[in-house]
Amino acid sequence: MANILAVDDSASMRQMVSFTLKAAGHTVTDAADGKQALDIAKTKSFDLVLTDVNMPVMDGLTLTRELRALPAFKFTPILVLTTEAGMDKKQEGRAAGATGWLVKPFNPDQLLATIKKVLG
Amino acid sequence: MSIDISQFHDVFFEESFEGLDAMENGLLNLDEGAADVDAINTIFRAAHSIKGGAGTFGFMAVSEFTHVMETLLDEMRNGQREVTSASTNLLLEAVDVLREMLTAVQQKTETDDARIADVNGQLEAMLAGEESQTDANGIEIADVPTTQENNTQPKISGWKINFHPHKHLFQTGNDPVRMLRELASLGELTSQLDDDGLPSFTDLEPEDSYLSWQLTLKGDIAKEDVIEIFEWVDDDCDLSIEAIIQEPTNVERAVENLAKQSIESPPVPEPESDVQQQSQDKIIAESSKTVKAAVATKKTASPPATTSIRVGTDKIDSLINLVGELVITQSMLSQIGDNFTPTMLPQLIDGLAQLERNSREMQEAIMRIRMLPISFAFNRFPRLVHDLSEKSGKKVELKLSGEQTELDKTVMEKIGDPLVHLVRNSLDHGLETPEVRLAAGKDETGIIQLNAYHQGGNIIIEIIDDGAGLNEEKILNKAIEKGLVDADANLSPDKIHELIFLPGFSTADVVSDISGRGVGMDVVRSNITALGGSVEIKSKRGEGSTFTIRLPLTLAIMDGQTIRVANENYIIPLISIIETLEVKNSDMKYVSGKGELYPLRDEYVPVIRIYDIFNLQPTTTDLEEGLLVIVEGEGGQKIGLFIDDLLGQQQVVIKSLETNYRKVVGLSGATILGDGTVALILDVPGLMALYRDPSLATVISNERAA
Amino acid sequence: MSELQQLNDSLGDIDERTDQYLTFLLGDEEYGVEILRVQEIKGWENVTHIPNTPDYLCGVLNLRGTIVPVVDLRLRFDMPKRTYTPTTVVVVLNVGEGVQRTVGVVVDGVSDAHNILPEEIKPTPDFGTTVSTDFIKGLVSIGSGMMMILNIDRLLRVEALG
Questions:
Q1: pTM here?
Q2: Where is the domain boundary, B190, B218, B245?
């Protein structure tokens, strides 16, 4: 069972993601923006990071770049939660170092399926 | 597993309404031109969150509507679109519509589809109006059906995949093993590893990828499914996917040939021409306008009665502490009860006093939970003033102060409408048009101030405008016309101002949409009186008007100093006491027209004899037999109160006199002492006013009933 | 059991059209108020005097946490004041049409509650009564005497209390 960091500025999304992942047996830590997440990441390691893109203080792509710079997170799977935008957004994510993406809106089953892809 | 996500709906609604407020505030503060990117970003993010959440929780109509708003905002933050007042106003209206939509979803009521379509149309028109890079991608173009899969396709029994990850694949956190694992779950997978790229051990970089695979995946599997597995890494690898074709049998080939002749590729439906779309939009917009007019211009359904209240954890913590203290007191009393002997009486009395203190403190702490900052009531005004200002063509600036002043939740909910009426009134009748203002030597932009602060046991709310002030002549004439006063009545300006509070009074020649019809100042006053409060007006022709609302705080705690004068006890707010002195008659100075003055260091402080202004029987009139309490009133003015004696200090809960009686000049309220008796609390500014003008004392002298 | 409850209990079945009135005494005369307006009846306790108010406003007292003004009806009716004793009674009334306020009145004593039919209430003559007719709703014959029904909303309106 994995240790997951979930980052989203929307409380309802955080709750939904947290609840879903916990119900599947994972441990979840959440943060409301990139900076909070980065601060947490500096003290703890995770098996997987899920992050929204549009957030105040520090957005998801900046967070991804910053995480990749931390030794503990060099190879950690980071998934960005993105709305169905064009390929350019996905390229941006990849350029920032993200592992992959999950398209919003998604339901709990889709979330779990994607997590499974990464964690096995 | 199925998780019921409706449990998260409440949070979604709450944060969405907050997001809408944030959008509204942001839009109101946007300057025209190429605006502040940060500000637009904040507005964009709010819309984006609502869209995402709505989509996630299945509120598709909300999500689609928000999408168009989001697209507009995206263009603005990219610099592709200028911020104009037209776009801001349209977005503000869209915010209103969105708020209604969310409320309808939350309360499971119907939506005003005509209005939604109308505003949606306007948003799309605005988007289409300018050549913008992004498509109006909200419009779903009918799916162009792909050429049918038919038997002309050879049967695919599997796929041959060449997968060569680039060196740095791991650095995106990807791992080829995952892809292989997933492929294996689709069908029968055989793999052949190619390690040609692997360097010698000493040259090996452990973080790089050197391996590649030739994979065979057997099964009836769609190509899309295979492609999907590599979706995340398609840039970071060389990938080839070839179908493994199973040779069709002769029979199948014959069938194929026959089928080929009769199949026609289905026509691709033409996308609707732009012109058609736009004229359709226009027709919808026009017809919905008439529908809109016919549909109740009544305001949107009143906001859902808030059933919850946000409480700061500090208030909860103090409540928990008090419960702890109560438990201790209870066990102490219980111990006394177990082995009680009359010698333990003093302890029992102590314990009971402690119990009284605990219960009183708990009651106060709980009541404090219902106190909320008045900002909740003030928050609707920036938008209201903005809209009214646009409608009336008057330039208005709204200034708020004291938003953190707390008052009871129920009182706040009920004071909202009266406040709105007063602000509308100020804007409609008080403030002048820019031309008139300039001609009068005033700034083009009028100012409306909303202030809130605590005073004694009350909360004071002021609505101040720098407009034309009340037109006494017009008011008097109207009142005479309506028979509310006698034609020859000689009324002071203040008394004339009071006339506007009489029922049925309105000087508007045309009932303006802004101030509404028939809802007069009398209703405002009675609504406020129903809350135990009062409203007064002060106005100066040409300068402006000030409405002052006074409401009792359901809970106000104050540190009080009990004093004795003329055989009565009163309480002075400790915070207003500067010092207490014994004085000598020889120190006093007497100035005609100014009364008694006491020299206090570098200033002269007027001395007020309380028994005088309160018309009480004094025990002594000799200053040397009593004390002088120096207190601070309004504007830093000091006065000295002559009292007989100082008694104790204690925390008191301020109770309103106005609930069942009325406001008394010189008193700010009353309190209930430990022995259950009532003590009156002195109001220093009131004492000063009484001192200057004793006629304020009695409203009516004894009215005879016989 | 409070006096009010006792009074209520002592009554039997009543004609639905009747209204109940509580009567109290001031000097030789009986006055009545609708019983629905009577919140409670209590004994006299010390009030806190409010400065610059008419003499008939005794002051205010604490009624379970609320500040309630107390009016001496004798003084209000220009009758000579009586000294308050432990048997002096304060009738706590709910006054006002829309916004209700609580006001206490000091009376000599409380009498019975009576059921009165609307037609039993006669108009007040212009003379012969101690109290100004503005404050009387009507007269009712009770036994050999007469009861005057008070218009407390007028009598105890804010402006009248100083």
A1: 0.51
A2: B245
What is the span of the domain harbouring residue B160? 155-245
Q: Do chains A and C touch (3 or more CB pairs under 8 A)?
A: no
Q: Is residue C14 within 8 angstroms of chain B, CB to CB?
A: no
Dump pLDDT digits (tens) for B248-266. Answer: 555 555 555 555 544 444 4
Q: Work out the pLDDT band at B530, boundaries 50, 70, 90.
A: confident
Domain boundary residue among B113, B129, B145? Answer: B129
Residue A7 confidence (pLDDT): 94
Q: Is the peptide bond before A105 cis (omega within 30 degrees of 0)?
A: yes
- Rounded to an integer, what distance in angstroms lies between the CA atom of residue C80 and that of residue C86? 19
CA closest to A83 among chain B residues? B52
CA distance C92 to chain B (A): 12
Distance from CA of A38 to the nearest CA of B (A): 17
Spell out which residues of chain A touch residue B63, defining contact as CB-CB under 8 Å: 105
Give B559's Cβ-side CA count (13 Å radius). Answer: 5
Interchain contact, A54 vs B207, CB within 8 Å: no
For residues B73 and B47, is the Cβ–Cβ distance under 8 A? yes
CA distance A31 to A47: 16
User: Can you tell me the ipTM of this complex?
Assistant: 0.85
Whether B298 maps to a domain, the answer reads no
Q: Give the containing element (helix H, strand E) for B118.
A: helix B113-129
Look up residue A112 and give its two tokens: 């779990």
- Per-state percent for chain B, helix, strand, coil, to nearest 5: 45, 20, 35
Q: Where are the alpha helices (DSSP H) in chain C?
A: 3-9, 73-76, 152-155
Q: In whole angstroms, what is the distance from residue B12 CA to residue B58 CA?
A: 12
Q: How far apart are CA C127 and CA C136, in angstroms?
A: 12
Residue type, B509: D
Interface test with B, best of A15, A16, A45 (most B CBs within 10 A): A16
Residue spans of the domains in chain C: they are 3-161
- Contact at CB, C162 and B700, closer than 8 angstroms: yes
Same domain (yes/no): B545, B570: no
The pLDDT tens digits for B608-617 are: 999 989 989 9
Find all residues with CB under 8 Å of A114, minimum gap 6, and list them. A79, A100, A102, A106
- Contacts of residue C130 in chain B, CB cutoff 8 Å? 706
Residue ranges of domains in chain A: 3-119
Check residue B251 and give its pLDDT.
56
Q: What distance in Å separates the CA atoms of residue B206 and residue B204, rounded to the nearest whole number?
A: 6
Same domain, B86 and B226: no
Strands B446-455 and B396-401: parallel
Q: Is B572 helix (H, G, I), strand (E, B) or coil?
A: strand
What type of residue sits at position B405?
T
Its CATH architecture, for the domain C3-161, is Beta Barrel (2.40)
Q: B689 and B591, same structural domain?
A: yes
Q: Are B483 and B539 in the same domain?
A: yes
Q: How many CB atoms lie within 10 A of CB C94?
A: 15
**Fold for domain A3-119?**
Rossmann fold (3.40.50)
How many domains is chain B built from? Answer: 5
Residues B602 and B539 in one domain: no
Residue A20 touches partner B, C-beta closer than 8 Å:
yes
